[in-house]
Design goal:
Helix content: 40-55%
Structural class: alpha/beta
Order of helices and strands: HHHEEHEHEHEHHHHEHEEEEHEE
Low-confidence stretches: none
Strand order of the largest sheet: 4-3-5-6-7-8-9
Number of helices: 12
Mean pLDDT: 90
């Protein structure tokens, strides 16, 4: 579709969603009608404090207008971890969006993938798993929750078939590359953890490392990851890692994704090495606003003067405001 097609689609979605939101105590019956982008300037920003207040007073289902089938936690990097509630339809929509992105970058039915992600209630692992089912990809998920989970993940991957696809943070993809290609790298990691985290003396730390490495075929792991053709990375910028990743993954094309717990796919790369990210217009409606105006709108519940994506120009900066169905 052309941008003009998405402009009409987004206005239709906003009109429907704003009208529907009047039934929620989070927003109330005084929400204005939306028939143009200028009408968005009459809407306030809604902060988590207002959501929590509505949840306490009126309950989840009445506030959300649908049953909350699942919740995911934000990482807490920006403060206290928060719950983000999803309906079954939300989960299906997010999986379909990620699957569409995967198809656009070359992921195809029958591929073998390795997802190295956080477990629930973080959103990344479950979303990738659901998307892989939509695409009919054999995705091996090794969820990381405890210190020893990386060892389990590496052991499982070393017994797998060769991978076509990997997904995880750039740091994790980089660390896996070093583990597979540098003989003592993983052993040294384990020994340091044994000494620093468990306070084992040197001989016991070395023994622990030998036990942890038992059953891991690093040669097989190296072959498996050298076959990787596509990588999906998220949570931190990809560009600082690219030169190093080329050493370990000679056939890999990596694609950076910007997402959040509220919306796992906001923008991404669609060609390797492209400068900047492109909005995922099938799934998000984006605006930019002055961060001070955002805070004022949340606090005073006044309209937020934001700039919709249809009016963006090169060099603009601000806080990213995302709406989605």
């Amino acid at each position: 579709k052309r941008p003009a097609d998405f402009e009409g689609l987004h206005l239709a979605i906003l009109k429907k969603e704003v009208a529907r939101a009047r039934a929620s105590p989070v927003y109330g019956p005084d929400m204005p009608d939306i028939s143009s982008w200028e009408d968005l300037h009459r809407l306030p920003a809604v902060g988590y404090d207002r959501l929590d207040e509505a949840f306490r007073k009126h309950g989840l289902e009445r506030s959300l207008l649908v049953p909350a089938d699942r919740y995911y936690h934000t990482s807490g990097y920006t403060g206290v971890s928060k719950r983000v509630y999803y309906s079954a339809r939300d989960i299906e929509r997010m999986a379909s969006s990620y699957a569409l992105f995967g198809h656009l970058i070359g992921v195809r039915k029958g591929m073998i993938g390795w997802s190295i992600a956080g477990e629930e209630p973080l959103v990344s692992g479950p979303t990738l798993h659901h998307a892989s089912r939509v695409l009919d990809v054999n995705m091996i998920s090794t969820l990381l929750a405890q210190d020893t989970d990386l060892r389990k993940a590496v052991a499982k991957a070393s017994r797998s078939e060769r991978f076509d696809l990997m997904a995880g943070t750039p740091l994790l993809v980089y660390v896996i590359g070093r583990i597979a290609n540098e003989d003592d790298y993983f052993r040294n990691m384990i020994e340091r953890a044994a000494r620093n985290n468990f306070h084992l003396p040197g001989p016991l730390a070395r023994m622990a490392a030998s036990l942890m490495l038992a059953g891991i075929d690093l040669g097989r792991l190296r072959e498996n990851i050298r076959a990787v053709r596509i990588a999906i990375t998220y949570a931190e910028p990809l560009s600082p890692y690219l030169d190093s990743l080329r050493q370990y993954y000679p056939n890999m094309k990596a694609y950076d994704v910007l997402g959040s717990t509220e919306c796992p796919l906001i923008a991404s790369q669609y060609s390797p090495g492209q400068k900047g990210l492109q909005l995922f217009l099938p799934g998000v409606i984006a605006e930019l606003a002055d961060p001070r105006d955002v805070q004022r709108s949340k606090k005073e519940r006044t309209p937020l003067q934001a700039i919709p994506w249809t009016e963006w120009k090169a060099g603009m900066a601000g806080e990213l405001i995302i709406s989605r169905p």
